[in-house]
Amino acid sequence: MNENWNFPIVIISDNIIIDSLVQCYKDHNTPLSVQEDSWHPLCGLEMEMGMSGNTNTEVCIRRSRLYYENHAIKQCDALGGRNIVYSAEKLSADQPIKNHSLILVTARLDSKSMFDGIVPGALSTVTSIVTLLSAARILSQARSKLSPPSKPNTNALFLLLDGEAYDYIGSSRVVYDMKTGGFPKTSLPIGEQHVKLMIELSQIASNKYIDQTQCCITRG
Fold first, then answer.
1. Among 78, 133, 149, 200, which residue has the fewest nearby CB atoms (within 10 Å)?
2. For residue 160, what pLDDT is reported?
């Protein structure tokens, strides 16, 4: 995704259009002899693509300020997001957190792909989010059934990180806030010294759907 190509790239997923293009090439462009091979193709394709946010970030932001100052729609905007934090055990400022007593369980909230709605980029995100939420719910229910509640030496902290698809915005902000004493809030800071283990949940699913999609995309 961070590679820069100097030519436009498009994807065609309609099988009717794909068959039409392939048949057009076979009917008109397949050379019948060595002499005809030197001729230009008889079947061509012209595509029209509108580009409203091209050039670079500086130009895009300047255009947004000039032409879209009074409109909600912008050509480009600053990237950002909101992380979600949940603790299996209640955190209190009256009870200091011990060093190496937290297990961080993380999953990303976002995904990106070159072709929206075609490449199953959200598959890995959804499966990891569902797994994280299920684990948090099970631990919470098990905790509520204990009588009296025990005081474990280790606590689990569940984090849903936003902006990971764009240079790891969510996790970078967590590390920054840990170093500056602002995670998850200034009244109850959690630092790197408190973390014992970090578990990152990524794609948890069969690749059957992905294989089928790639088959359709690369067809022809």
1. 78
2. 96
